Amino acid sequence: MLEIEAQLAREELDLVNAQNRVQLAYLNLFQLLELPMAESFTIEKPSLPEIQANLTMINAYDIFSTAINVRPEIKAAQLRVESASKQLAIAKGGRYPSLSFGANYYNQYNNQYKIANETIDLGTQLKNNSRSSLGLTLSIPIFNRFQVKNNITNSELQIADYEYQLQQSRNVLRRDIEQVYTNALAALNRYISSDKAVASMKEAFRYTEEKFNVGMINSVEYNQSKTNLTNAQSNLLQAKYEYIFRTKILDFYNGVPISL
To answer: Are residues 127 and 212 in the same domain?
Structure first.
C-alpha cells in the first residue's frame, strides 16, 4: 500500500511539472508572437492523418529540381546573369557604327510685335515664326581610348561573377534540401520504430497487469511496466509531430503550400 501511495505522489509531481512546462511553453509562444499574456488563449489541435508505416517520401533530387524553379533567391540570381548578358551585348555594340535620327521644332510669340502699328495676332505669329529641322547622325568609332574594350571586359567579368553566385546559390539550396530530407527520413524511421515499441509495450503491460491482478508481481514491477508504456507513447507522439514538421519543410522547398 505504501508503495502505491509513493507512486501516486511521484505521478502527481510529474503532472505538476508537466503543467509548469506547458505554461512556460505558452509564455515562450506569447513572447515569440509579441503578444501579452492571455488566460483565454488556446491552441487549436489540428486533425492530422495517420502516418503509414510503409510511407515513402519523394527523393531529395526531385525536390531540388522543383526548388530551383520556384525559389526566389535562385530566380534573382538567374535574372542578374541575364541582365549582365544584356549589358555585355550593349557593350559590344560600341564596336559598330551608329546611326541616329533627330528632329527639332521651334516657335515664338511676342505681344509687342507690330507691323505698320498693327499688332500681329497669335495665329499669324506662330505660323510665320515656326522653324523645324530633321537630321541623321552617323558615328563611326575609330579610337576611344579602349573604352569599348574595357566595357566589354568589365561586362564579361560581371557575368562570370553572377554565374558564380548563381552556382553558389544552387549549391546552398541543394545542401539545405539534402539536410532537410535526411532529417525527415530520420524522423520517419524514428516514428516507425516508436510505433513498433508502443505495440510491444502495450502487449508487455497487458501481461504485467494480469500478473499484478493475481498477485504474481509487486507494484514496483507493475509501475515500471506502466512507465515504460507511457514513455513509449510519449516518444511516438514526439516522433509523429517531428516527422510532420520535417515534411512541411520539404513541402516549403517543393513549392507546396503549407497546411495541416
So the answer is: no
Question: What is the H or E stretch that residue 220 is in?
Answer: helix 219-253
| 179 and 252 within one domain | yes
Per-residue pLDDT of 247-257, as tens digits, reads 889 888 888 88
- ∠188-191-197 over CA atoms, to 5°? 145
Are 83 and 172 part of one and the same domain? yes
Backbone angles phi, psi at 99, to 5 degrees: -120, 125
Q: Kindly state whether residues 194 and 154 are assigned to the same domain.
A: yes
Beta-bridge partner residues of 133 = 104
Residue 149: count of CB within 10 angstroms of its CB: 13
Running DSSP on this structure, what letter comes out for residue 94?
T
Range list of H helices, 33-146: 60-70, 72-93, 122-129
H or E stretch covering 30: helix 2-32
Domain that holds residue 4: 1-43
Strand, coil or helix: 53: coil
Cα–Cα distance measured from residue 113 to residue 125, given in angstroms and rounded to the nearest whole number: 9
Q: For 130-167, how does the pLDDT look when each residue is reduced to its tens digit (9 = 90+)?
A: 888 888 887 777 766 678 888 899 999 999 999 999 99
Asked if residues 135 and 177 have their Cβ atoms less than 8 Å apart, the reply is no
